[in-house]
């Protein structure tokens, strides 16, 4: 008689149940189990193993709360950045806003606990930041006067810090095991809804208090604003958020730093503006940093995947050994 702890059988123990009930020959069952337990790990389908990895799922409440917290930090970062532009020089704002990659690096190291090769990444961040600074300082054509440079620089620095906060926060809330089940469209939809319900009332408050007077744009301006909202906000934010979730906030920010040399290149082609050697030096520094970090990210991802697959293979072998033990135990009790 089969021991009670093995009965009733589960679906995974169907072979054990058949053996215990005498529906299959015991020698065949024992032989098949031995063969399966000795199965080479090279025959295991890695994709099927990865499907067995633990996954984290989000319900609507969790998704909404994540969007709410993200939205508040995101709004603060954008508001302080635009407020800083009002008081400081564009070149100063560009340099200080690029300190966000330093904040992202620090916050990722403190809260995500997933940053490896810390020294190499810090070097890459500093090289990229230095390249952006070289381009901004030596190649910018900024002849304006700052209204209140200290205040404007402070606003821009706060914006950079808040950017680091909400980029790191998004990855913190969506770890690797939750990537497949995190619906980015729903998340950004909630962000838009919260903006409309919570933040839209600030328009009349700021307008009537004189903090920021609102003027309805003309038709041409409205058209360009709508186009920018679709391309510069909707699509770009979706791609940015997916990149943060998949690649991490640090690598994403390094990719965004490429917009500085690429933007100036577009300006030179459209307006026929030429730049000096410092532009090419800064561009080379940014691209070299990005290429180096790409290689480092690839090696880390490869090593992490190999480690995860090794753990899943070990669990697979352990289940096979357990199944073999159960079949042998059932066979002995049936004799």
From TrEMBL:
Top-level taxon in the UniProt lineage: Eukaryota
Species: Euplotes crassus
GO cellular component: membrane
GO MF annotations in UniProt: transmembrane transporter activity
Alphabetical list of SUPFAM superfamilies matching this protein: Multidrug resistance efflux transporter EmrE (SSF103481)
Keyword Transmembrane helix attached: yes
Chief location bin: membrane
Protein name: EamA domain-containing protein
Subcellular location: Membrane
PANTHER family for this protein: SOLUTE CARRIER FAMILY 35 MEMBER F5, SOLUTE CARRIER FAMILY 35, MEMBER F5
Coiled-coil residue spans: 302-333
